[in-house]
Amino acid sequence: MSNKRMKGTVATRALYYGNTAYPILGKKANDSDHTHKWTVLVRGVNNEDISFWIKKVSFRLHETYPNPQRTIEQPPFEVSETGWGEFEIAIKIYFHAASGEKPVTLYHHLRLHPYEDDGTGQPWPKEKPVTSFNYDEVVFNEPTEAFYQVLAENNALTFQLPTKKSTKEPAVPFTTMVEQEELDRLDKALREVNRQVQRERQRAEAITEESAMYK
Amino acid sequence: MEAVTPFQHAMSGSDIRDILQIGKPTEPAPRKLKQAVEKKPEGISRELYSLIGGAPPIAFIKPNYKAKLSFQQKATPWEFRQFTNPARTDGLVLRHWVKTNDDNDGDYYFAKFNKVINVTDYTNEEYEKHLNDPNWTKEETDYLFALCRNYDLRFVVIADRYEYPGATRSMEDLKERYYGVNQALLRERAASSTDNNQERQTLIQQFSFDKNKEIERKKALEILFTRTPEQIEEEEALFVEARRLEQNDMKLAKEREQLLKFLQTYDIQQTLPSTPGPPSAGIPAQPGLATPGGIGIAGGSGTSPVHDKVNHQYKPVRIKLPWNHLPIHSQYSLKRRRVNQKWIQRRFDACQMLRSALRSTKFTKTCLVEIIEKKEKLTPGVYVRSQKIPPIKPNMIQKVGKVMDELGIPIRPIMPTVQVCSKFEQLQTAIITLLDLKRQVDRQETDLKVKKTQKSKDGTPTPQGPQEGIANR
After folding, report:
1. What Å distances lie between residue B175 and B117, B133, B181, B200, B322, CA to CA?
2. pTM score
3. Which of B226, B254, B240 has the alpha carbon at shortest distance from B344?
4. CA-to-CA distance for A147 and A165, rounded, in angstroms?
5. Would you call B297 and A11 a contact, using CB atoms and an 8 Å cutoff?
6. Each residue of B223-241: pLDDT tens digit?
7. Residue B163: CA count within 13 A, CB half-sphere
8. Average pLDDT of the residues in B353-364
9. How far is B269 from chain A, CA to nearest CA, in Å?
10. Which one-letter DSSP state was computed for residue B282?
11. Does chain A have fewer CB atoms within 10 Å around its N or its C terminus?
């Protein structure tokens, strides 16, 4: 059995998940009380194929939907529905048997309604779809040999983040630039916090000195 | 008799008499007088006062009118006077309005703003001797210089207005001729005078004009100016990538050094007979051995040899270091790195501007050292990176959240990659430390205050007991 694990190795895969939604306009809006058409999905960055390491994805929708447990066994791993409310969707990702791994669960809050404005200060235009995506990485610690093989075949032992916003992919803002920005932000925050820690330490010293006088 | 209420018209006696048809002939006369005398309120007319029911208005202020604007002085006389502009050469006489009391201050005020550039002039002899050029006739050169004088050396205008029969000159041509003439003149004239050699040389140098370079420079500027937004984004992305790679390069260099230092010390350790621990058979002490289990580099590009400063040549390095056998002081944390060269190369060809800058840096030739991170024990299994960020105690969540908000960091990182996650964890722990520290210091401060007030109140040393215990932190 190739269930032996590759000791000391780690394989990582990146993906993003979320939903797009746009309001139903026109005649159809009057027929049902569903106001929005939405799609929840799981995709690989760079729009790559993820079916060689993901066997199936199950989306657990709200209980008011018929058959709330929707399992998708082939790419594209997405579910499209109509509705009127926002709720939490449990996305369970099952890996191929070769990996011998249990499925992982991600939670996503379905977004239908836009934020206050779309960044330009204008109220969100009615036709523009609302999106909410999250980036995440799935880390396989000590993958099995079989799984490692699968990954190696697909040149997928590591991944490369896209460097810039590809003009074809709308609203997939997960690039190295974003990562770098985040790193810079975190660096700045860390520096600030450390500075404050220093200040507090100095205060503590001053106070201990002073209290020593009163002993 | 008068029905005077705040909300009704004041009724005079005659009105009532009319309504009630009661005759009261004796009263009207004195009343009328009274009325006439009574009503002379200040500020407003009688009619208005009666309109509002004879009661004083709630907030009545005597209107304060502005005094009538008074002209104390006589108007100043102005004169439509003639004047000449000394900056002019034709003696044109114009007229303008001037105050008669303001004597003519002298020259026309605006004449001093007529700055003239001294375009050098040359004599015919000088031309014959030094300034002859196969492409330029004397007439054309004279014409050019006249234009320069006229348009104050503004070559954009000069190039536009240049109309010499039979000659099509670009701006670079004109500039070249102008600067060439000036340079030659400088050289010849300065040679005759006893000028400071150094200054002269620098001045001559200033007039050197390389036409081809200028054309190239303008072309480059044009390209720069007409970049499309995509290109600009591309360049920015490349800059970011370059910076990242440079950082990686530095880190790699440092790690290489550390690794070599460690290996050397480890080598020494190995030779010492007193080294405890399991036999070294399972440990690849020599860096030349490659062990399986390394994660491949993206794109399959191979590793190139590592050259260290002591001129040892190491083979492609994939070293697995068993941490539990190492002496404590050499347990550095060595992380795994990956650099994809091919991808960068492709991007380079697409963007000319960054080519030279990026080629000059050395990271395209960096080696790739794959060292597996072994600081933590790897438990087999799969997890999602963002879910592995250590959670915060429930009572601290809110406070930490507030601090993060002030710093502009979201509660959960947008892109939880390895680096981002580790930094995020660091930040989290730092914030928790900060909050704990703050709490501690505040407590100390209040204790100190208590002690102070105690002392000032009693004038005696603070009694032993619970306070002492609290102070002794």
Report:
1. 16, 14, 10, 21, 72
2. 0.47
3. B240
4. 31
5. no
6. 989 888 888 888 888 998 9
7. 2
8. 44
9. 24
10. G
11. N
